[in-house]
Amino acid sequence: MTFTINSTLEMANSVKIPIFGLGTYLLTGNQGQKAIECALKVGYRLIDTATLYNNEKIVGNALKNTKVPRDQVFITSKVWNSDQGYSRTLNAFNKSLSNLGVDFLDLYLIHWPVEGKWKDTWHALEELYIKGKVRAIGVSNFYISHLEELLKIASIKPMVNQIEFHPFLYKKDILEYCQEKGIVLESYAPLTHGYKINDIKSPQFLQLIEKYNKSAAQIMLRWNIQLGNVIIPKSINPSHIKENAEIFDFTISVDDMHYLDSFNEDFHSDWDPSD
């Protein structure tokens, strides 16, 4: 399949989500806003934020400064753990809209499966979706056990599951489960927050860099895309933002995809949802 920076995936409700976007964790202040504006200029059309990131206002400012129309930018935010529960989630959502300066969100996620709260939180997301305040709803950091519990109580199934996913954390079981259930898997930290990029010493991986004339980061991102995932690499560096987007002019072979699968070592650069 041929991908471009404008490619999308169709979620279960037929709404289309861009396959490539910008993660904004730790992007703050004027420098963070400039990074978001740079990404939009390069062609990124998905911007992922969250209450926890404390940067929804700069995302909103970047949207105001861009020439890209609002209906062409897919905006995601997430309800944080301390805001979970039915009524608190509704209040948190309205605050996010205000911070972003928008009338609706394209995707709203439960950030983490907080025990004793996330089911009520999901019912709040269902209400927001039914009322047309958000175009799609989903979850983040949900593993199969969480998803199975959610599907038991949900009137509307999640359209997206956002988890950490990269060759060093290749959760094949979750990927296959989501694909079977019609849930889009969205990969955050697809570059391991940089922890593993400089640790790649394998001669065969270095051969891939030479073979495809691409950086390690670009190969890792392309691997994720070819598995059928949405990816949201983060960077504050304009040259890296541009480089991360230059992954649509090559294709990794089947054999090389399998080789990259073998890098899995269950490495979490963030918290482990199973713990």
UniProtKB/TrEMBL annotation:
Keywords: NADP, Oxidoreductase. The keyword Oxidoreductase applies. SUPFAM superfamilies: NAD(P)-linked oxidoreductase. Residues 30-265 form the NADP-dependent oxidoreductase domain. The keyword Ribosomal protein does not apply. InterPro entries: AKR, Aldo/ket_reductase_CS, NAD(P)_OxRdtase_dom_sf, NADP_OxRdtase_dom. It holds the Pfam family Aldo_ket_red. Belongs to the aldo/keto reductase family. This is Aldo/keto reductase. It comes from Promethearchaeum syntrophicum.
